[in-house]
Amino acid sequence: MNTFFALALACTLSTAPNTDDKTLSRETTTYVVTNKMAIWLTEAGKLKLSVGQHDGSAVIKLFDHKGTLYTNRVGLRKGIHQTFDLTQITEGTYHIEVTIGDEVVVKTIRVERHQSPVFRLG
Fold it and tell me: pTM of the prediction?
């Protein structure tokens, strides 16, 4: 399982923001890694979630101020890899919440439309 997280970390670091990029604040990142999961944004506007093998299940929720857009409980016996296409949702602030056992990770996603879309994970 440690190999999985080392690989997930390596993959997410390869998508880390350029420190010279002035569009991202210091509080904003394109990836989150815990000892149970990795969440990252691609430049193409895809939100990726990867969870290693665990006993039990995970609950995944994607929501905004109006309510839940997506919720799912998934078994983790084989781990999971899930992709959300953020290019299909309107501009605004969204949240992803992933619960695995007693660990709950909630991250804010800001979708901004300029000349080209901007996706931020905070």
Answer: 0.69
